[in-house]
Amino acid sequence: MADKRRVILDAAVRVFARDGYHTSRVGDIAEEAGIAHGLLYHYFASKDEVLATIFRENWGELIGAFHRVEASGEPADEQLRGIAKTLLRSWRNDADLVRVLVREVARSPQLQAQVDEVGEVFLTIQRVIERGQADGVFREDVDPRLASWIVYGGLEEILTGWVLGQLPDGDEEVARAERTIIDVVCSGLAATPS
Amino acid sequence: MADKRRVILDAAVRVFARDGYHTSRVGDIAEEAGIAHGLLYHYFASKDEVLATIFRENWGELIGAFHRVEASGEPADEQLRGIAKTLLRSWRNDADLVRVLVREVARSPQLQAQVDEVGEVFLTIQRVIERGQADGVFREDVDPRLASWIVYGGLEEILTGWVLGQLPDGDEEVARAERTIIDVVCSGLAATPS
DNA sequence: GAGGCGGTTGACTGACCGTTCAATCGCCGA
DNA sequence: TCGGCGATTGAACGGTCAGTCAACCGCCTC
């Protein structure tokens, strides 16, 4: 008797993760959810809206988590660690969801509507880096905007490695990935003691 | 009287770059190439094969360029710079091609066949990092495999920023991106003088 | 100028799939 | 027990496209 809407969304995540958005049929989602495919249109206007909903709900949560890190008052390098943790641990929490977000959304075709929300993730990282520079923790000869893209790219690529099964993804390895990227990025950004 | 095959491939790159693989029709490619769509099947077995050909031909070239850098005998950090140059400058060379490779191929659905060739790019970066560690240029407490994914991710994300029009991509900025990512990565990987 | 042949055309087919909707179910309140 | 209504079903529709194929073109050769 769980909320059908949720059931459908969860099923859709599994199906999109398995087959990709374009190649999965509405009927597949319905079957996975254990409903007739017509019922999906009782809850969603279209297949597109299902994907958009998955994106909106979960990406919003990610942004929230990032903002909480940002507001924590920790030093900038610790905040970067917090962001890395949030992103990388989401893999263990819900691998299928990460699969969908990484593959379908991050570089979707007409992302006009999503650009703002995706951009907010980059902006948060950028602000953390800028604060680190202002506090003297990070070097100032690096463009924070570019740096934020590089940092996010490193994180996303690790997720991609796990999504594609090309990088080991046990608890151990997730922790190591976290350590590694923070090590590299933070010493790469570190202020050189003059 | 140019080779029709080439004409079709070039047209396909433009169309895939504009509309994405799944949403672009064979007829669109044909129109862009100035031929009847039936003729496409004279040169290619299917729409899939067109994309696969685009990938194979161009990715192979990228791997070749990477291998040339690797064989250059330069120190590891210079080799990383060479790799970054190769990848980032490809944007100015052929933006549409980069668009297609980044969006359609790097995380395509059934990439079983492509995994080897994609993997070779990571392996090359990994070998460069390992050589840097052996030569004492890079710190040894970082897993070269993970580091290669992080480095590639940073590079690809910058390309993505350009693809999405979210990062400025003038000559100036491309050069700066090159400098920035190498700065960050190389000092992030640098051996700490003990 | 006849014959042949690779290149080229575009109408057509067959299948697929998102979406609609009329019919049915089953719960609940009166 | 009845009526009503939201939830649910799945057959049918409509449109889209990848891929096929029979005909045609124009160039070359003999």
Quick summary:
2 copies of one chain form a homodimer. With 194 residues, chain A is mostly helical. Chain A has helices spanning 4-19, 26-33, 37-43, 47-70, 76-93, 95-105, 112-134, 144-163, 171-189.
Describe the structure in your own words:
2 copies of one chain form a homodimer. The first copy, chain A, contains 9 helices and no strands. With 194 residues, chain A is mainly α. In chain A, helix 5 (76-93) packs antiparallel against helix 9 (171-189). The first copy, chain A, is elongated, with a radius of gyration of 19 Å. Chain A starts with a helix and ends in a 5-residue tail after the last helix. The mean pLDDT of chain A is 92. Chain B binds a DNA duplex (30 and 30 nucleotides) through helix 3.
What distinguishing features does this structure have?
homodimer; mainly alpha; 0% strand; elongated; DNA-binding
Order of helices and strands of chain A: HHHHHHHHH
The helix fraction of chain A, in percent, is: over 70%
Mean pLDDT, all residues of chain A: 92
**Number of DSSP strands of chain A?**
0
Termini separation of chain A: 64 Å
Oligomer: homodimer
> What is the alpha-carbon Rg of chain A in Å?
19 Å
The share of residues in extended strands of chain A comes to under 5%
Content-based structural category of chain A:
mainly alpha
Biggest chain pair contact, residues each?
A-B, 47 and 47 residues
Morphology call of chain A: elongated
Residue windows where pLDDT falls under 50 for at least 5 positions of chain A: none
Helix count, DSSP H or I runs of 4 or more residues of chain A: 9
Which sheet architecture does the biggest sheet of chain A show?
Answer: none
